[in-house]
Design brief:
Strand content: under 5%
Largest sheet: none
Shape: elongated
Radius of gyration: 15 Å
Number of strands: 0
Number of domains: 1
Helix content: 55-70%
Number of helices: 3
Length: about 55
């Protein structure tokens, strides 16, 4: 979505706000999997941030 915006407007947005949450069941039963998934998401966001040179 951000890359499409860059193509359409010619530049990426100056900043992007990302929200992540955990469900009650993830806290109770799937804490390890949920934590690893969030770490992977943060890594992807970091890569996108360096690619777009955008404040995330």
């Amino acid at each position: 979505m951000l890359l499409e915006r860059k193509k359409y407007f010619g530049a990426p947005p100056k900043s992007v706000r990302v929200f992540m949450g955990k469900s009650d069941s993830a806290l109770s039963f799937g804490h390890v999997a949920s934590t690893l998934s969030r770490k992977d998401s943060i890594n992807g966001i970091s890569e996108l941030n360096s690619e777009l040179d955008t404040g995330i």
